[in-house]
């Protein structure tokens, strides 16, 4: 089971079209992400959480076409990403064991990432795709003055997909709602339960498209992947 929060407004894109519907490689970014999830043998169902105003568009273009047969539900998203995930999670059957959450605007996930993070979640209860920090990290204080250099050894950059046992993710979201706790990813909510979350190393290509320059980078990644496939 995969949940795809796709209700963001994309304010940093500075345009009228939500970023998940912008074109990348001639297709909406959301379609690029769904294509990989659709092809994965470990994903059997996909639930989308989208803006209420775009729900009919998504039904027409991502469900009725038949291309993404694993998309079984399109639910209204919430004001924040966390709300959208919670809305989608409410539609998950109790028979589901592992739930994968993936940001709609990370179109360069791979089937291998999906497989590995789901396997890790099945073994440990929760897992995320992440990258080890490679840059030198500075802690900057008032006035833009560096106060100290932080050891980057234990630092990782969280990405999606992230995978969890359903019951654990439901408990994390339930307690977050009751406690008015807000987090930028689901792993943080699970961490607050005191549950271990393991890291599966991902790829630098697994970018999140949030700014106009990310579209330029994304087109370059697509061209590179197309060139590799053509050479094989």
**Class in CATH?**
Alpha Beta
What is the strand tally?
11
The helix count comes to 7
Domain unit count: 1
CATH architecture: Alpha-Beta Complex
- What CATH calls the topology is Spore Coat Polysaccharide Biosynthesis Protein SpsA, Chain A
* Amino- and carboxy-terminal Cα gap: 32 Å
Shape verdict? globular
Topology of helices and strands:
Layout: E1 2-5, E2 23-24, E3 27-28, H1 29-39, E4 46-50, H2 55-63, E5 71-76, H3 81-89, E6 98-101, H4 111-124, E7 126-132, E8 137-140, E9 146-150, E10 156-165, H5 166-179, H6 186-192, E11 198-201, H7 212-231
Commentary on this structure:
The chain is α/β, with parallel strands linked by helices and 232 residues long. Helix content is 36%, strand content 23%. The protein contains seven helices and eleven strands. It has helices spanning 29-39, 55-63, 81-89, 111-124, 166-179, 186-192, 212-231, and strands at 2-5, 23-24, 27-28, 46-50, 71-76, 98-101, 126-132, 137-140, 146-150, 156-165, 198-201. It has a seven-stranded mixed sheet, sandwiched between helices. It has a two-stranded antiparallel ribbon with strand order 2-3. Strands 8-9 form a two-stranded antiparallel sheet. Helix 5 packs across helix 6 (186-192). The mean pLDDT is 94.
